[in-house]
Amino acid sequence: MTATEADHPSASGQAAGAAPAAGTAPEPIDENIWLEDVYGQEQLAWVREQNARTEELLEDADYTDLENRILEVLDSTDRIPMVGKHGEWYYNFWKDRDNPKGLWRRTGWDSYRAGAPAWDVLLDVDALAAAEGQDWVFHGGNFLRPAPGEPHRRALLAFSPDGGDANRYREFDVEARGFVDPADGGFDLPTGKGNASWLDADTLLVATTADGLPRTTSSYARTGVKLRRGESLTQAEKLFDIPEDHMMAIVAHDSTPGFERTFAVDWISFFEKNTSVLRDGQWVQIDVPADVNLSSHREWLLFRPQRDWTVNGTTYPAGSLLAAGFEDFLAGSRDLAVLFSPDPHTSLQSWSWTRDFLLLNLLRDVSSEIHVLDPRRPGTDSAWEATVLDACPPLHDVNAFAVDDEDDAEGTDDDGDDGTGGAASVSEGESPGAGNDFWLIATGFTTPTTLTRGTLTRGGDSGAGATSTHEVIRTSPSFFNEADYEVQQHFAVSKDGTKIPYFQVGSKDLVLDGQNPTQLSGYGGFEISRTPAYSGAVGRAWLERRTAASAGAEGGAPHRRGGVYVVANIRGGGEYGPSWHRAALQGNRHRAYEDFAAVAKDLISRGVTSRERLGCVGGSNGGLLVGNMLTQYPELFGAVSCGVPLLDMRRYTKLSAGYSWIGEYGDPDDPEQWESIKTFSPYHLLKDGVDYPETFIWTATSDDRVGPVQARKMAARMQAMGIPNVWFHEALEGGHAGASDNRQAAALQSRSQHFLWRALAGREA
């Protein structure tokens, strides 16, 4: 079914290619703009026809076996049930074969630690969906802080009707195991994009697009309101609003005893925001540049600048972490303590407070390193004493975060155990309980995830720094024979001479003759880092899969080859901090694509693979990345798997949440910026007479972040141009993730993996 512009009106009610408003860049003719009507009957008929065609190609016997093997991984009951602590209970959300939509449940620490928890099921989402006739997708919740000595009882739970970003918030009584009836005053917010936070037992702070409340051009909430029990959103008191062309408004309350504060955030763009705190009924903006990220913890205010920041004559580099007393800073003091300063190899990824310590999660050449900082003791390399946590093997990703920084429970277990397997030891001035406990989650490409719990204590007068005890709580099962594979890190040289790290996972007996099916994955945007991670699905679907027997190198014995999996750490990501990200922003976007192409060329030059055996895969911004590989570097790849992608960079700001990404890509309505943006807009770079790789484009109807229409239009244009081997599939639910349960996730992963394997391993050299 091929459509042209003449066959269909514009989705915007204006003919595609019509004269633009004065000062606005022209829109190229778009024969597929009719596909922008996401839920139109004719459009969905086109989707179903495409889906049937793709499923006929891919869903053979090998596919069915692959999907079942991936589903076995996702549904495994031996997976680690990750938990969050609230009061005395440890909460978990769990999906498996019998509970595809999931169970929200809890258990006690002794039960969890013992390895076979006795779960107390609070909510069965499958039963809820069946009872209400709505395919709810659970998106978590937040608890109301109880009165001292009382249990955590009331929670605000978020549910998406289709897996998208818009949620319905409903008040839940944990002890009664049910929703609080709106007729009895229970909170039940209509579906919308935004956030909700408890102010007190009878009041919420809400920013939402529900009930007709105004939204920004980016499709997010524009106002924040104070919603009292029994009120509707339209009756709620307005607290805060932002201009329409800003990204979103957020309102939230920090209920930490002694440090209660109400915040409002004017999120101007993806990388700029102004934060205000409510004082005496007035909003007081925290006086920092909009590109300095803020966070607060009790008496402390932390700063992470995205660009170099000069304060009172001192310049703090982008990506550093600084601290000041919260009240001192608001009063005008600019005495900043340097907690971390980046170097060319090391970046700060995240941080987490325990009761008395600050945990910093760093990357050093994309391998984890964790520092423990003590604000009560002066340091040497940082303002606060810093100790390296000995928990990070090379080429692994390890993250540390607090178990419950607010647990100041008196005393210890009767047996003197601190709850983690170590002897309880509290130095003078420290809080007892689990307040200084932390989780460690460690993973690697060939290392199943391990969950460890530890406790931090302050060292003695010897200056030894913070010390910790550790206990391994859970280890994920093995889903493939990891011992047969090795992880290597290599560095490719990009066009401008920058060294680009990448990870290569392959068989220990890998033959470097250019004939190995290789899957290259990347992202390169929004300061998001790609780090080592165990995936049973990748292990089964790619590493362990075998080609038919082929001739060995230099006439050697024939052998069956497995796949090689590669992750590229290109610019635009956050692997080396904000400067690595900013290097590929807007007009410099091509650096990300040059980096990825350099990795592809390095794999070929090293003999790992060849054009015929090399495929790439990416989703969302990664979909834009591989869309540019398809259109700008087709000579490097044999196949491209492009998921939930941005592809039409002229109209991306008019689709779903696209306007919010102008800070990343630029504004295509600006004629000067469009001249740059159009050079990395795959939809506009397609040309006749090019030998394009085999292409699979996949998306989801209910994706309300990127939306499905850019993927639709790209596939339609390629097919209309007569480009062979172009396939399209659109899941009818699942949101931006493309799947709302394990079965859908297994199908999504299987289609992409099977497509790449057929294209790269099934052809003759």
TrEMBL record:
Residues 9-26 have a biased composition (Low complexity). Residues 1-26, 406-439 are annotated as: Disordered. InterPro entries: AB_hydrolase_fold, Pept_S9A_N, Peptidase_S9_cat, Peptidase_S9A, Prolyl_oligopep/macrocyclase. Gene3D superfamilies: alpha/beta hydrolase, Prolyl oligopeptidase, N-terminal domain. Residues 29-257 form the Peptidase S9A N-terminal domain. Coiled coil: none annotated. Residues 560-761 form the Peptidase S9 prolyl oligopeptidase catalytic domain. Keywords: Hydrolase, Protease, Serine protease. Residues 406-418 have a biased composition (Acidic residues). It comes from the Bacteria. PANTHER family: PROLYL ENDOPEPTIDASE (PTHR42881:SF13). This is Prolyl oligopeptidase family serine peptidase. It comes from Arthrobacter humicola.
